């Protein structure tokens, strides 16, 4: 008689658990040896850890990454992805361990396995299911799923809370084949609704920009390609990668730019913005049953897609409109920079800064104030400063000497370190304007919709309270 499928599955999981248990224990021991090696180092590795940790802790301060030991997290990340003297920390550990006389050293299999830890990555996961001794986690950034086993470094309290629906910010390291384990400290965020989950993903983008699509290089490549395409489209429309104009005028130009870009994208795939998706489907000869089948095939996106399909409005009408924030729209002058890797950045006082740098009768007090503002403004990114240094080297250097109270300041030698001091990244991270995977786009839209509904309810409640208040005043006490 054939064994029931559920029992077969349970049996196979038990066998898998038994075969992995020795490796899970070995992982914890080797990982601790690696951490001890780094913490006891006194050479370039110690300096590398200090620099790396300072950078991460600064990044995690705004918004604050809480709920876990940030120092331990920085160490855990450094030991698997840190580079010292153009070699990985893991390679340094393997070489040192292999040459040790006080221990038997690492086996060939252990060395190979440790090098696999370079694939460790941070992610924002949802517990999809709990199966015997392991957890099936879904990475919210890439929609990929992982079979994850706990090890001795997780607390009993954390393990007890890992129920389906729980959102966890953690790192994963490979055990073997398609099996993974937890690495470093984790934080449990609870069972989040869509608005709070969207916020958590937004925070993750700021805390771990290098891990956005750590397990999906194809999504990362597509996102970077979208940034490069946005750069080309912007330059083609505006005629330059740097544009300055009044905020209200820029807002109108951006609306026209969006419209033209959308037309181009639709045209490239043989579509027209004057048609509705319903019209396009009929022209393509698709039956209602075929359309319904296609919508069902896209899973959780089917509801939103079906609503768009059923709409009789043209694509031009249903496309979201670009609108600048009030601060930019009302500004006398807004300068836009666009880069193929850094994306777009908007500055309201850049024109005034340039006028001071170009003037032979510049007011040092005004110039210095503008310099400080651009140093502190997060939108005045590193390539903007590189452009300033190349175009106005002498007045900029003199101004920075005054502002920094450093008569020996040199643009060539000290600019990068100054920008780093002001928390400006010297290497590009994926801009927020980059295209996101469909499942994230759907989540963000659903979150906005949920927030809108909540705001509507709140508004209705306030109106109701006002009406009740007015009724009370018009009673016998009038």
Any key phrases for this structure?
alpha+beta, five-stranded mixed beta barrel, three-stranded antiparallel sheet
Please, could you describe this protein's structure?
This protein is an alpha+beta fold. 57% of the residues lie in helices and 13% in strands. The chain is built from 20 helices and ten strands. The protein has helices spanning 5-40, 44-59, 70-81, 89-98, 108-116, 156-161, 194-207, 217-238, 247-268, 277-283, 288-297, 302-310, 315-318, 326-329, 350-358, 364-376, 382-391, 393-403, 411-421, 438-473, and strands at 83-84, 87-88, 121-131, 134-139, 145-149, 167-176, 179-190, 242-245, 334-339, 343-347. The strands form three sheets. A five-stranded mixed beta barrel has the order 3-4-5-7-6. A three-stranded antiparallel β-sheet has the order 8-9-10. Strands 1-2 form a two-stranded antiparallel sheet. Strand 6 (167-176) and strand 7 form a beta hairpin. Helix 2 (44-59) crosses helix 3 and helix 11 (288-297) runs antiparallel to helix 12 (302-310). The longest helix has 36 residues, at 5-40. It starts with a helix and ends in a 5-residue tail after the last helix. The model is unreliable at 1-14, 297-305 and 470-478 (pLDDT under 50).
